[in-house]
Design a protein that fits this description.
Elements: E1 2-7, H1 19-22, H2 27-37, E2 42-47, H3 51-61, E3 67-71, H4 80-88, E4 93-97, E5 119-122, H5 127-137
Parallel strand pairs: 1-2, 1-3, 3-4, 4-5
Helix pairs in contact: 3-4
Bound molecules: 1,3,4-trihydroxy-5-OXO-cyclohexanecarboxylic acid (DQA).
1,3,4-trihydroxy-5-OXO-cyclohexanecarboxylic acid (DQA) is lined by residues 10, 71, 73-74, 76, 97-99, 101, 108.
């Protein structure tokens, strides 16, 4: 089973960025832990701050991989292009957020991409990514 985790803008700063919301751990610490815990999965990771690059990556793997875990960062709330892309590919996408966006600013409460996703996991810190893997492996 091949699963790709995609992180969008500013998520390269995890561990440094607003630690009271996003925690102290960088993504680089989480990925080996996940790979160790789920040896049966081929886990891949991609991060970009650029909307078009996220779309390119979704298109690249979106007919071959078994699952995509997407934290689109702030593009979650704005990007019709990401929604169209998620709908265009055949690989199922799970939307993930580290924070619970429903408890934050009003403008974070709407997800533009949710309608194209299999489901959403949010509010569990970095464990949200693991829970998304669990959702894929059943
Ligand atoms: C986020 C929530 C978004 O609203 C925000 O723009 C992010 C991170 C999260 O993981 O909690 O960049 O997707």
């Amino acid at each position: 089973m091949r699963i790709l985790i995609i992180n969008g803008p500013n998520l390269n700063l995890l561990g440094k960025r607003e630690p009271s919301i996003y925690g102290n751990a960088p993504m680089e610490a989480l990925l080996p832990q996940l790979q160790k815990r789920y040896p049966q999965i081929e886990l891949h990771y991609y991060q970009s701050n650029i909307e078009g690059e996220l779309i390119d990556k979704l298109q690249e793997v979106g007919f071959a991989f078994d699952g995509i875990i997407l934290n689109a960062g702030a593009y979650t709330h704005t990007s019709i292009a990401l929604l169209d892309c998620i709908r265009a590919i055949s690989t199922p996408v799970i939307e993930v957020h580290i924070s619970n966006v429903n408890t934050r600013e009003e403008y974070r409460r709407h997800s533009m991409i949710a309608a194209g996703c299999k489901g959403t996991i949010q509010g569990f810190g970095l464990d949200s990514y693991r829970l998304a893997i669990e959702a894929f492996i059943g």
